[in-house]
Amino acid sequence: MNSVFIKAFKIKKENGWFINSLFLHQFFVGAGLALFFIASNAIFLAEVSAENLPFVYLFTAIIYLVTGRLYNLLTQVVKKERLFQFVIFGMFLFILSMYFGALAISKVWYLFFLMVMYRIVYLMFHLEAFGLSSLLFDLKHSSSLLGWTASGDLPGRFIGYLSITSLIMVLDLPSIILVSACCILVSLYFLNRILNKPEFATVEISQPLENVQIEPETNVFKFYFGDRYLRILSVLSVVIALTAILIDFSFINDLQLKIRTSQGIAEYLGYFFSIICISTFIIKFVFSKKVVGKIGIRTALYVLPVMLTIVFVLIFYFNGLAEREGGHSLLHFGALALIFMVFKYSLNEPVFISLFEPIIKPYRLHSFIVLKTFIEPIGILIAAMILIFTQFNATLNFYELQYFLLISIGFWLLTLIVNHQNFIKIFESALEARSLEGSELAIKDKDILQILESKLEANHSEAVIYSIELLHRFDPTHIDARLTLLLSHPSEEVQIHVIEKIKALHLETQKENILKIIRQNGEITPNVKAAAIKTFSILKKEAIEEINYYIDDPQSPIKRAAILSLIKFGSEEQKNKAKEKLFLLIGSTEVNDQILSLEIIEELNESEYCDVVLGFLENENEKVVRKATLVSGKLQDRIFIPFLISMIKTGHYYNEAILSLVQYKEDALPLINEEFGMYKHTKERFMLRLCRVCGQIGGGKASEILWWVVKFPWLDLKIEALNALKIAGFEAQLKEDFYQVTDQVEKLFGQIFWLHNAIILLNKKRGFNLLLDALQKALEEEKKKIKILLSFLFVSRPEEYKEILNLLGSIEKEDRL
Description:
The chain has helices spanning 3-8, 16-47, 53-77, 80-104, 108-136, 139-144, 146-151, 154-170, 173-195, 217-226, 228-258, 262-319, 330-354, 361-394, 398-418, 422-432, 440-443, 446-455, 461-474, 479-486, 492-505, 511-519, 526-540, 556-569, 572-587, 591-604, 610-616, 622-635, 641-650, 654-662, 669-678, 686-697, 700-710, 715-727, 735-763, 769-793, 798-816.
């Protein structure tokens, strides 16, 4: 991908191919939707009066509700990647069916159905695009690509609209629908390229498959309508949808009065919407973020309704009140439609989506789905009823219709004015709850930045740290001054965080401030001074003479920092003096000195101290041994592996030994394998612990060892090995893995069958209560094992796994009856 393009959109170089695939996916979807839109509108308007459009809106609102409920259900039972593929393929099938319908059906009802289907297909794409963007990008990267991911279809739409004049010369309108379907199919290919790429596989921390539950839809609605902030967004959404439909109807109806032929309508719509696309693209990427950053989110929400009001006033002025009966102007309504669509998609919609950031994460996606598929249809439904009422009671009096539109815009402005303060208060609440992760467009709002600035003066250290991190992320230009201010914050936690941040950012401008902290006495806590010593040495790349005095400091944190700084950055004389002090601590009989020496060795992370750590592993003091065990994992020297396994075997300090042994990863597996081989026919408890180590290490070799252990005779060990395989993320993908799992499942089903029959027979006899209890417990253990085994076959298909568990449960229930 072109380097200029990468810089323009702040794309990471390593993700260039990935972003390119995403662009092509959205490009072909956009082109397909553009062609489908023009063809469906041209076919409809050439045969049916635009006065019937209110019924199209009415049916659209109803089907939106059904589509939304279905999509909300699918998000909870289908893996996200599969859901997106399902949605795009569904769009292809819908459009393809419309092509065959256009050839075979000549009924009027089909033309209505065609218009409704375009709106349903567009809704499906909107949901897919929102979900796909949130899935594919980590939050930080997603923020920088907010405009890009939300507008990747615009170039495709532009090409689609612009090409209609050429296509219509060689193809009829139904054939253009077929071309649209082909574009959607091509986009599916690029979507599969993205989702099948191993580097970009979704990493989600999910609950065990057997615990997967569909969240009751009533809970989502209860949360949604129980939240005042979401109710405000709902009112805004209804008003915007209502306004959009009234403008759409006014424009389309006036277009039909001026142009009668399907070809003329198609060409006009192609040129008109290509202008909208290119204008939206330019405004979104060149001006939107700058505008929002300067005027703020709250003011940005006023831009579209204010501009519509101005255009409306001009329309009334030029049309004149004398022409209130039948005075139509395609230019006026075209201008209104153009202003609405350009600023809705370039400014209003991105800002509106950013208002979902304060919502707690588990409900964010569901709230968006409810908004698009339940709330917006209410606005569409109201608009449809107004149009139908106007049509049947005033023979579609355009002057009255314009008043409805003006009232709608007025109510839009009133809603914003009444709730002006609430939009910032909700962001402030989100900051208090630490739930604001933030999109770039939202967080750069001047009001929100001002709130973050005010939080820097808070007494609660968590609020200060959270705010400085967000400020650095989204407004890094003033980070130096902010950190200088926070160095004098009363909280030790804040001071240490700021010093560590100065070190991480390598801010050499802060050297003097850090040096002042080192030279202060009494007012600075030992931990703060220690952090300052280490940071200053890293910034200056040398250890100043003053640090020499601190290697004998009575405070352990300061002494540790001084010794570390001198060894890492000091002169030869300073290094020798610091090492001498370190070996004095190592040879000390005081427990605190020994632990301090281990802490220094841990931070130095140099193999020359391995013998020292080995010596501490045999220390008489429990605290020293525990610390030495943890340090052995940090040093990553294979010499420690046998010692760690021995500690796991003896049961002394085995928790620390497990943590350290896991850090050696596959290097530890050969010796672990030997231990399993030596104790294969025993019931040593340490083998259970080694299973846990293998599970945490993961990978092919660890899974191979665990499958071997599954075949050992000890029942508890079998279960532990299976649990470890699950922790390791094992999935039966290769043929040998699949056969291995199915062989074990077959054996277990045989054992379960035998135990089940034995229990049934013994239930008919007396005096076997103890045996029955034992068999029942054995049966439960076998069931646990078989559930784990089955999960290995259905890691990527949780819905099928759940069906199998339900089936097993129903069979068991019938057997009991």
